Amino acid sequence: MNMGVASLKNLNLDIDALEKIFSDHSISTITDKDGTIIYANQKFCEISKYSEDELLGENHRLLKSDEHSPDFYAKLWDTISDGKIWNGEIKNRAKDGSYYWVKTTITPLFDFNHNVQNYIALRTDITKEKEIQQNLEKMEAKLLSQNENLLSMVEQKSNELVKSARLATIGTMASRVAHDLKNPLTILQTYADMLTPEIITKLNSKDREKWFRMQTSISDMNRIIEDVLEFARTSEIKKTPSSLLRILKLALNHVDYSYGIVINLPDDDVSINCDPRKLEGVFSNLLDNAVHAINGHGEIDVSISFDSEFTKIQIKDSGPGISDENLKKIFEPMFTTKTTGTGLGLVICKSIIEQHGGSISVSNKPTTFTLALPR
């Protein structure tokens, strides 16, 4: 084998220190200035499934997969031959035809005249992380498709029903659609939950963002399905004497808002005869709408008053208000000013309040929702 150098010991380097680092901590190779492999440590042999004798004297083209374009390799070579360090991720093909990914740093080594003499490549196996990334992307795409199909089906069917004056049948249709989508959504949630915190911490920031975006999308889709099912259900109201302030505080736990938003709850409490679980859903929906309306900064005031017949709860936000045109349609099914959602939230709220024998109304500038419940 006419290579001039056949092992790390023949190189003019600090052998003892480098040998230990390469062997214990990294998948490592060294090439001459032309890219011919003159050293490969044991970890590189293991992942590539080539023996040291098979690798020495060869070029890394031996491991080339079809993942990267010729331009990718040209830019890599231009960088290192210019004396610069190259960092990136490479998909290689092992001797047995299997593929693996490595996060790679290639550093030029110079002679006394500052001419490139060798290249040293240090790698980390990221094959599992790449598999996780690909699974995340597939699940995200499937989830987005399911979500878009759900919204499209609900919108299409509801428009047909409105036009034909048969809106009442939307409950049956929506319930079937929601139930059909709940099972695949549960599967997606299960796979997402399989990513333990230990695995998630190994993902790069881009993949972690994808995972969190997927979790948010699953949560959004669950909320949409629950809205549809709640609209379809006509469950009986179960009234019990309940603390109104406690219901408001429980509802607040379901509202996601930033530090720039202040939500002021009343100091005084009052007991009302109601279905506390259903009212909790009403308040969380109204508070969540108010949070969206003020767009990250402002105040939401919740107040309680009463007369001889009704307990009144007002939820007022400091947002820009609702246009007169939208105000007229705000309690109509399928109407929403949000980019996502079913437009059923306020319809459900209105239905629940009316089941209690009460009423709900809205006024503008500032936007104020007023609920009146029998005492």
TrEMBL record:
Residues 129-156 form a coiled coil. Residues 86-138 form the PAC domain. Signal peptide: none annotated. SUPFAM superfamilies: ATPase domain of HSP90 chaperone/DNA topoisomerase II/histidine kinase, Homodimeric domain of signal transducing histidine kinase, PYP-like sensor domain (PAS domain). GO terms for molecular function: ATP binding; phosphorelay sensor kinase activity. Keywords: ATP-binding, Coiled coil, Kinase, Nucleotide-binding, Phosphoprotein, Transferase, Two-component regulatory system. Residues 30-59 form the PAS domain. Residues 176-375 form the Histidine kinase domain. It comes from the Archaea. It holds the Pfam family HisKA. InterPro entries: HATPase_C_sf (IPR036890), HATPase_dom (IPR003594), His_kinase_dom (IPR005467), HisK_dim/P_dom (IPR003661), HisK_dim/P_sf (IPR036097), PAC (IPR001610), PAS (IPR000014), PAS-assoc_C (IPR000700). The keyword Acetylation does not apply. PANTHER family: PEROXIDE STRESS-ACTIVATED HISTIDINE KINASE MAK3, SENSOR HISTIDINE KINASE. This is PAS domain S-box.
